[in-house]
Amino acid sequence: MRIWTDRSYPIIVSCAKELSRWTEIEVRDLGYKPIEVTENTVVVRGGMRDVMKLNLYLRTAHRVLVPLLRADCRNIRDLYELAVSIDWENLIEADGYFSVSSIVHNYTIRDTRLPSLYTKDAIADRMREKCQRRPDSGGENHGAAVFVYWERDEVIIYLDTSGEPLSKRGYRKIPGSAPMQETLAAACIMALHWDRRTPFISPMCGSGTPAIEAVMMAANKAPGLLKGHFAFQSIKDYRRIIPGEAAPRVAPRQHMGATPEQIWKELVLDAKEQENFTDLPKVIATDISPDAVENAHTNAIAAGVAPYIDFKACDFAETPIPDVAAPSGRSKGVVFFNPEYGIRLGTPEELAPIYERIGTFLHEKCAGYTGGLITGNPDLARLVNLYYKTRVPFFNGPIDCRLFVYPGCELKGQNESASV
What we know:
Layout: E1 9-14, H1 20-29, E2 36-37, E3 41-46, H2 48-57, E4 63-72, H3 76-84, E5 97-105, H4 114-131, E6 136-137, E7 144-151, E8 154-160, H5 182-191, E9 200-202, H6 209-218, E10 242-243, E11 257-258, H7 260-274, E12 283-287, H8 290-303, E13 310-313, E14 334-337, H9 348-365, E15 370-375, H10 378-382, E16 390-396, E17 399-407
Parallel strand pairs: 5-6, 5-7, 9-12, 9-14, 12-13, 14-15
Antiparallel strand pairs: 1-3, 1-4, 2-3, 4-8, 7-8, 10-11, 15-17, 16-17
């Protein structure tokens, strides 16, 4: 396969479980028509520019993958033979670096590290045979990347064009305890239908991820601009001219074509020009822990959005709520909670009064706003006692969660009652 010159091939955008609904929306907004959607993938067709564009702009995705081989695979020896048959010499530089990651559900494999190790060996052996030398390999994310998905008796070997997962933007320098993943925060904001013009308020902000993601969305800042390296930048011939391609802004006098590197630089320039940090809505992030607020501010600095977030150390009930007029027929803004669930932190008995207070705060201080609360504990969610319009399924890591959406922050008795 020639990833730089082939014009159309399947591109698999992977995401966490239950996020594909939101990844599909993003993909369509970027102008692509999905050809398949599963619970954790969105598949499109495209070429080099599309691989780069998806890596640059997607907020809820995990990886952008290009399938190289799909076949029956019964055991680890089959995997080696399949992997060694791929023309790696056309994909990886002989003096470069690559890593392999894998997800395996096959009854013959007890040590889940083996598939990655055998695939590394197969690549090294193939490269040594074809090039008389082999690239280095390891677990770091600064080179080319390969991803193996082995489910029962079928394996798919992908070229991973992302490398380090897209969920790791690079700004979360101090994660704090039980941090919310960036992709989940972005999906929750999408599910709350925030219009990006009204206030966004994040009490219990923790490491600051929801507030940071909100500013990036409002300013149209592409998340990929924060990453220092994508695996596609280490694919063979990244700096070689591709006839018929063009990057006139980066290489204005190059008439014979352009390199993938030049095309990427032009896409980056386009993304930066689309940013708009003027007239952003009010974004507020508070936490009872001064250390958490300081850490969130540090992360916001790394993301380049600190001047656009008002941070305050206080109890969530003291979070300032802007007194704004609601746009005609719409919400005044969004107030988003990500409290402890009693699973990783706290106990349900300790957290019950907090959930009751969240409900009181939303009703008394946030009338006219859209409230949002994500939790992995439905019993605690009942204590909020507000009317919810929807409860959206999400997974926070392995924890099955629901995002409750409270339009207007009304008590259940003030609107149609809904059971959790």
